Amino acid sequence: MMIAKSVRKLEGYVPGEQPKSRSVIKLNTNENPYPPSPRCAEVLKNFELENLRRYPDPDCTELKQALAKLNHTTPDRIFVGNGSDEILALAARAFVEDDEAIGSLDPSYSLYKTLAAIRNVKWVGNRTDGKVSLFLWTNPNAPTGTLASKDFVAKTAKSFKGVMLVDEAYADFSRENCMELAVAANNRNLIVMRTFSKSFSLAGLRVGYCVGPKPLIDALVKVKDSYNVDAIAQRVALAAVKDVKWMRANVKKVVATRASVTDELRKLGWTVNESESNFLFARPPRGVKAETVFRELKKRNVFVRWWAAKNVRDFIRVTIGTDAQMEVFMRELKDVCKR
Ligand SMILES: Cc1ncc(COP(=O)(O)O)c(C=O)c1O
After folding, report:
1. Ligand 1 centroid distance, CA of 85 (Å)
2. Cβ–Cβ under 8 Å, residues 276 and 169
3. What pLDDT score does 18 carry?
């Protein structure tokens, strides 16, 4: 058989839908509703075609320098990837033996299970014991939006024999994060991962990075493609880091909208987790099915996310959009729930 057995039985990850139509209110993949820094536009406008003739910098030197400054560490403690999804795949390659397992919270980012299947190793939920050699800890978690304290993460990592990768895709929207643990001199097994896709409004660019102990960072470098981050992505991400104020202003707007939509939903009888992210995880009032809300909203061009898995099927996940988008969402939602 030409296709490997593990691949034949693989289900594959199903990403949130990316509709072609611009008229859709897209609250299904946790993108940022606000544009990236104008400095990114400047870079693109002035980018010389000649730069594409050559291969990009395999070490992302300038970007790593800027990220080191931002996170109070040194460039040799940083790894840059083609989106943080690439870093997750590389971690599965670098830190897991064939007879070991990958662990994560459950429910959590569903790609983790697929990565374990691709790597042909076991996935286990909510456990760090036994054969688990890589634990992917989404914090704040997705799709629940909830946050584990830095102290709890530190304590768990300390007693864990494997690599603890804290996926902080949404950390800029939360009260607390674990970067301080990752940059600490005595850290031996904790990696903190961030992305440009959410708070920096650059999901289309595909850049993520992580910070951790040098031996672990060096291991990731060994298993990566030589030129994993393209020349344009390196430049644009650098411009975004240099204008971190812009990102923080957008985050502030998202956090304010998050609070008001949470209140509104609760007033309508929805159960809404206290979110530390750029999305809400919400359960409709008795008598209304989450799946129906998801399907009916879709008919009205409002896309949210819903999963059939048992432990999440009573909820919808709604990305925080602009105030105007959330007004439409609330209007349509009220109409859907009335029926
Ligand atoms: C928890 C989590 N980690 C990682 C990612 C992927 O981010 P990137 O766009 O950097 O690959 C996502 C995207 O939705 C996510 O929710």
Report:
1. 6
2. no
3. 85
Q: Which residues of the chain have pLDDT under 50?
A: none
Alpha carbon 57 to chain centroid, angstroms: 25
pLDDT for residue 324: 97
Enumerate the CATH 3.90.1150.10 domain ranges in the chain, comma separated.
Answer: 16-35+245-338
| CATH class of the domain defined by 16-35+245-338 | alpha beta
Q: Which two tokens stand for residue 82?
A: 């083609």
> What residues does CATH 3.40.640.10 cover in the chain?
38-242
CA angle 63, 183, 159 (to 5 degrees): 135
What 3-state DSSP class applies to 208?
A: strand
The torsion angle over the Cα atoms of residues 36, 109, 146 and 133, rounded to 10 degrees, is: -120
Identify the burial level of 311 via C-beta atoms within 10 angstroms of its C-beta, where 0-12 means exposed, 13-18 middle and 19 or more buried: exposed
pLDDT at 15 (0 to 100): 82
Separation between Cα atoms, residue 82 and residue 283, nearest integer Å: 34
38-242: CATH class: alpha beta
CB–CB of 332/295 below 8 Å?
Answer: no
Position 122: which residue type?
K
Ligand 1 pocket, residue 109 CB under 6 Å = yes
| Cα(172)–Cα(153) distance, integer angstroms | 17
C-alpha span between 116 and 67 (Å, rounded): 29
Query: Which atom of ligand 1 has the smallest separation from the CA of 109?
Result: 1
Residue nearest to atom 15 of ligand 1 (CA): 169
Q: Cis link prior to 140 (omega < 30° from 0)?
A: yes
Establish whether residue 195 lines the binding site of ligand 1, counting it when its CB lies within 6 angstroms of any ligand atom. Answer: yes
* Residues contacting 253, CB < 8 A, separation 6+: 34, 322
Peptide bond just before 107 cis, omega within 30 deg: yes
Q: State the pLDDT at residue 111.
A: 95
